[in-house]
Task: structure prediction
Amino acid sequence: MTQYEFICNECFQHYEPDSKTLRCRTCRGTLSIKYKNMEDKSASLPCGPELTMPMPLPSISHYISLGEGKTPTVRMQKISDQLGIEIFAKLEFMNPTGSFKDRGTAMMISAIKLMGISEIVEDSSGNAGASLAAYASRAGIKAHIFAPSSTPSPKLNQIKIYDSILHTVDGTRDETTRAAEEFVKENSLVYASHNLSPYFVEGTKTFGYEMFNDLEPFPDNIVVPVGNGSLFLGIWKSITEQKNRGVIKNIPKLHCIQALNVNPIASQTPWDKSRISTTVAGGIAVGSPPRKLEVLKVIKDSGGYSDSVTEESIMKWQIKLAKHEGVFCELTSAAAFAGLENLVRKKEIGKGERVLVPVTGSGLKEAFPTN
Result:
């Protein structure tokens, strides 16, 4: 008997957890993890001096780590002054493979290893693939990583260096997912999808738990670049868990930022394949995010806002952060700051409010800007 179960986010059907159940068998909804005893300290992960996070493992001894988490939070003095708010950035590119994805991957790979699985398949725009390749290597698991051929070469090279098998796809991010799913069926393998796995979101919760140690008082707003929404949802789950425990009373607004060229959540309309275009923010170029309804619910429940940003503003903010704050982030991360500027202009974020932005990945993993 496990200390947790899977629950459908749409029809609330319950399932005993296993490696191949990624969607509800009744309504095809996405799944989350529900704990039977939130106070079980044997199945918790330390996230600070006084905070522990429930996790879907029997004990900490089963947790496979490369030292992810505990990333620094820094105040962005110059852009705070420019926008008239107080901005903090949590530097997620300080994780072992250079992105926040290591948080989710560590938990997912730990659960997969515990189940005795020796070969897995994943699809990614780059960062998740590199992360999974690294942790699979550490766990002794064979990994097949599918990625668009348009993925920046530093990310593809990073996947290969960990000795995973790289499958490049000449197509969109969504076509890459379909190729991975077909490969799983043809070879009867386990699909370790960071987009669908309930374990991945359990890992990204650590970001939210660390916020309680990093910032006092707590931020009024959290602005997140969103593709599939694993970090966005992990942050929210950590907040609700702490609110239910009485640790916090007031919750921050969670704002979702997408690229204007690929914005199925911010536009709140069914994605029309005929208008799929490319975006420099490859990490959020997801036309059909499976957890879209979950993200929209969090935006509503937190009082947040969803917005889209132009390619020009994304590139402008990548350079601006480097020149003014010494932070060289990936373009996906720059999209969040472009969105923050929009939110201030639209008065969705008021003057003097405190804002936290995750810098989700490193600019060193992309082609260098030309100007």
In short: Residues 49 and 213 are 8 Å apart (CA to CA).
